[in-house]
Structure formats: C-alpha cells, structure tokens
Amino acid sequence: MKRGILLLGLLLAAAPALATTGVALVHGTGHQTDAYHDYWQADMVESIRQGLDDPNNLIVVNCDFEQYMWKSEAAGCLAGYLYNFITSRGIDDLVVITHSNGGNVMRWILSNPTWDSRYPTIIHAIRWVNALAPSSLGTPLADAVMNGTVFEQSLGWLLGYKNDAVRMQQTSWMAYYNQYWLLGTSGRPSLPVGFWDVVGTDVETAVWDPDSYCGGYALNLGLEITQAWLDSCSDGFLNCTSQAGAGSVWFYDTRYTDGDEPLSHNQSRRKCFGLDRILRNDL
Amino acid sequence: MRITRNIVALIAAAALITVALPAEAGGPVHLLAPAASDLAARELVVPVETTAAPAVSHDTVTFAWPLDAGTTIDLAPAPHVTASREYWQRVSAAELRAGVTLYTTAPGALVRLNPVRQTLTDELVAIDPHSLTIAVPGGRKLRDAEGMSRLATADELAQAGVPFPAGTSAFRLSERLGAGKFVLQAPDLPEDATATYVINVFDKASPAELRLQALRDVVFTGETLQARAELTDGGAVLPLEEIRAELVSPDGEVTPLETSVGAGGTVTITGALTRRELPGPGLWEIHTTAVGHMGDLTVRRDARTAFSYAVPTARLTGDAEVTASPAGLEIAVGVEAAAPGRYEVRAVLFGTGDDGQLHPAVRADAATWLQAGTGAVSLEIDGATLAATGLKPPFELRDLRLMDQGRMFVLHRQARAAVLDRNVLAGLRDGEAELH
C-alpha cells in the first residue's frame, strides 16, 4: 500500500498535463472493411468522439479478426493501426476500446511485447483498455459451432467452418492460450496496462419494449435464443465469467446503464442505454 | 477509482528515485534443475517444416514491467478440465426420417441439428423444428411443436450473429416430458434426400458430466500423450458401458487412442506422439465419447480438450550470466537451438519484502533470432523499475519460460529457476534508495 501511494504520488507529479489523448475502437470477430458503419455505427462513434479535446484523435480499426489473434492480419494489422496513429498524431495517452474478440487481439499485443518491435511503443502510449464484453475465457458457443461441423480428413477445412477465430475461442483452447500466451487471467502475471471489463449480464427482448430494439430487435432475439446454451448471467454470446476473466471488472452493465438495462452482446457495441456517454466521459 | 499503470509515467517518476552507484558486478549462475511438475524439452528435434514458416522478425526486443507485489502467480498450473453435459450424433437423412433415439437425463434438454456436407456439392437442407415429431416413452407421438419449447429456426439463429453452421435449427424439450429416451423423427424429409445431419443434445440441467483432462497441456515429440476421463453425477463416478478416444490434429488427422478403465471407474487415455512435420498453427485435441448409466437412465456424453503438441526446437542450457549495475539487471539465459528461429525467454523476478517473504516484482520478456547452436536470450530489467518496487535481494527468477515464437511452441516452463542473492547482485546497492 505504501509503495502504491508513493508511486501514485509520483505519477500525479508526472501527470499528463500535456498529454495528447486518443481513442481507438477495435471490433470483434469478423473481417471488417467499414467497422465505423457496419460494426459500431456512426452515432456510437461520434458520441465517443465528443469526449476528445481534439476530435481528430480517433481511429476505427478495420482488420481481419477471423484469423488466429497472433496472425499478421489480426494483431499485426491492429499494431499497424495503433503504431501509425500514435506516431503520426503524437498520441501518448491512448484509450483503446475493444469489443468481444477484439479484446483478445489487444491482449495478445499487451501480453507479447517482444513479438514485434512496434509493440513496446504501443504499450507505452496506452492509458488503459476498455474491453466491452471481451471473450477472455472463450465461449461454449464456439465449441458448439466447431462440434457441429464434420471434419473429414480428405476434404480438410473445406467442409468445416473456416474461421480460426471461432476455433480459438473454444473454452479449452482459450484456457491453453491464457496459460501460455496471454496474461491477466487468474493466477497469471498482470498485463502492463489496465484492462477494464464492461460485462453484459442479460438479453431482454419483448415486442412491446422499445429497449429491445436498440441495436436491432432480430439480432437481440437471436441472442436470447442462444442464451439458452449459456449461464443465466450472460449476454447471449458470452458468460459473465468469460467477460470478467481477464484484467479487472470496470462494471456490470446495469450498474451504470440508463434504466439499469442489461447489454446484450450486440448492444455492448452500440449507442444503447448511455454506454456511449459512459465511454465518452471516461476519456 | 481506476489507476493508470502507464509504464512511461512509472519509469519517469521512478527515475526520481536513485540508486547509489557502485561498480558493475555479477557472474555466472547455474539454473536450478526443473522439478517434476515443470515442463522441459530435454532432447532437441529438428522440425520437418512442410509449409513455409511464417515471417518473423529478426529484431531483438526486450520489455519489462513492474507487478503488484500482491499478485498471486500459479507456478504449477493444472491443465484445463472439460466438463461436458452433451453429446453429438451424426445421422443420415434416412435415419432421421425413420427416427433417431435421443437420450436425456434431466428435463428440458436442448436439441440442435444442422445439415453437413459429405462432398462439396451436397445441398444443405435445413429442417424446421415445427416439422419434427417426438415420440415419448410409451410411444405417443407429439407433433406440431407439441413437446417443444423455445423453438428456433435456422433464420432466427442466423440473426444472433453466432456462426452456427448454415441450416442449424434448435428446440428445447418441454420440461413436462421429463427425462429418458425420446425418438426424434423428420417425416417430411424426401425419400431421396442424401443429406447428413449432426444432432447435438445438451442435457443442461443434468448432473451427469464427462470430465476430461490432459495430464499435460504441452506434449513434446516422442512423448506419450496421457489424459484421464470420468463419467460422474457430480459426485460419484458412474458405471461406463463404452468409451472411445481419438487424437485429432490441427489438419484433421484422426488417430485412435488407447483407453483403460480403472477399478474406480476413472479412464486412462494414452497415445504416442511421433509426428515431426508441422501441421500448421492450432492446437491438437482429444475427443472422447462415453456411454454410461445413471440409475435407469442412459447417459451419452462427448467431450473434447485441447493441448499443444510441440516439436522441441530449443532448450535451456541450464546456465545464465547475470550482470548487475545501477543501470539495471541483465540476465543472459543460455539457449541451445536445433533450428533457426525467433526464441523468447520470459520470467518473473520475485524480490524480498519487508516481511521477509518473496513477492512478484517485475515481469521481463526478451526475444531474438537465434541460429542453430548455442546462444543466449537476455532479459533486461531497468534499475529504476526494480528499485521502485521496493523489493530487495535475495531475488528469485520464477515462472521461467522458453518459447519458439515463430512456430508457436512452448518449450520450457519452470516454477523456480534461479536464486539471485546478494553475492551475485553486488552491483545493486541492497535495495536502498535516495530520493532527490
């Protein structure tokens, strides 16, 4: 405690009064080419942007997160975006906002600082990561997806579902990666920067409830169905235990959302129930 | 309040704390022998690389950061245990048209089915759950979704954004039906349909689990894979009627594994791992299928667990060279490589606190390109960073790991690797600091 107070005091003495703050939005599983419109939607991005002194200091990443997290198309692509952003705009106080598997790809960079010479520069510039519904411990639904395909040796992956990111998010796979290649889970060394989880705890859909339409009613209805395969505390894709599995919990959704509304896995990336305002004010 | 752990700020701030400046010191250190619970590549193997190795950097990169002294680090982690309450079954369209028996041991089981291709040109024909019939014990047939709750068509499931295979539909058996044997039938499937279907039964409310654990989550070439499995009711081991196990490689090669049921009902699974050519990235899996009984009910369970099959491309020599000065600590860890590659050493430096106990101080990583032969990978810990932790000698190097970054192999994991006492660290003034 005494050491912590001393360091905190020195930290404040060296506080970033002249820091240049930036925000990076990192999508989840999928190959994105226009995440601004397709993944986050403009109203979410523009609301978060209002929290910046310089509104130009925001980037929306577009990478191929259908790959294993360590591949050049995934972590390599993400590193490229962040490194170029930091160095070209002089960002030294970067807040990274991730969603779902984007949290794993970001955690790869933080956990493997010697993988790529750009990584230390990126890590040094990060204030913290706000991980929205991260799939830190994987999900039983990834196991369900993989087990539902028939893996025939003669035809290899052509018959299977060719998405390495889904394969990676199976629960026993993530257990291995968390033990050997990722940090921040229970029993492992901590990450070099804060990794703060926002946990979605439920999916609520009702035709007469306007809250069910935030993010898209059909999407939320689908998640309410898939929730049957998960624990009662889940967002339709991830159990709460997975979302809270790495780093530290910032908050469980209903603690701060408008109307104490839960965030489905779809809603946790959209301008729903004041989430955008919470993220904006955090800057 | 969330506290920023910004490395630059910490080091810049910690630079205000200075350490007195005696001369550089250090010397050779022989690492402790790995314990039985550690992981160590003993024999080197040159890998057979059938595909082009991924491009990896030849840069030498080091990084270290302070840890919270209260952090608990598990130095002898146990491999993951998969606990399954479900099973999968592959059936032909003809079998599904005639009727397939489902086995449940608790009310409200979830059933999912999807078409799969046997050839690239097979047509995927989804089945609407409303068209299915369920025959309950006693023979009565339920139609038109009677006996089902929470139906989901393929289109509805697709909306969830979960990448279920195309054509997946699902339903829950009504709880009022209880548990036991049910016959699922798709009478509307055309007689000439050639599709194959996978049926998944998730017995969510059941206490019966198939628990599967690999005894090690990293296995080296030439070693024997070992795993254990148990069918339990949450407490007691259940009697087994049948169990099978297979090894599945990342590129889909399937190899049967030996199973042996012990007196207590625990199953030992073994198999030799001899493959030297690398099948690409991804983990290997153990797949098990079990049939047993819980009272009068038949229990069917499938379980899978992943592990890494590593070709031991490098190993630690057992020696290190420590250089200690006010600038910091450098630990050059000896590595012998069978093949060129990018090798990384990681470790946690523990230091002694005012309570006389060892606490985590700093995590240090270093990676570099090594040619085949003997070399070293050097951990570097900045003196200011170390001084700022307030922890003092003796230090211990713990959780020492050697990784092959390019091939994604874990080659060494050692709980306690070295003791760095005051003699070795004479170059660091014993933790004292002056604030300027």
Short précis:
Chain A has 283 residues and is α/β, with parallel strands linked by helices. Chain A is built from twelve helices and six strands. The longest helix of chain A has 18 residues, at 72-89.
Structure, explained:
The complex is a heterodimer of chains A (283) and B (436). Chain A is of the alpha/beta class. Chain A has helices at residues 2-13, 35-40, 42-49, 72-89, 102-111, 119-125, 140-147, 164-168, 171-180, 217-226, 240-243, 275-282, and strands spanning 21-26, 58-60, 93-99, 126-132, 194-199, 248-252. Helix content of chain A is 37%, strand content 12%. The radius of gyration of chain A is 19 Å and the shape is globular. The two termini of chain A are 27 Å apart. Chain B is mainly beta and 436 residues long. In chain B, 6% of the residues lie in helices and 50% in strands. Chain B has four helices and 31 strands. Chain B has a six-stranded antiparallel β-sheet with strand order 3-30-29-26-27-4. In chain B, strands 5-15-17-21-20 form a five-stranded antiparallel β-sheet, with no helix packed on it. A five-stranded antiparallel β-sheet of chain B has the order 6-14-8-12-11. The radius of gyration of chain B is 29 Å and the shape is elongated. The two termini of chain B are 29 Å apart. Chains A and B meet through helix 1, helix 6, strand 4, helix 7 and helix 8 of A and helix 1, strand 4, strand 8, helix 3 and strand 14 of B.
Number of strand segments of chain B: 31
Count up the helices of chain A: 12
**How are the strands of the largest sheet of chain A arranged?**
2-1-3-4-5-6
The main sheet of chain A comes to: 6 strands, parallel
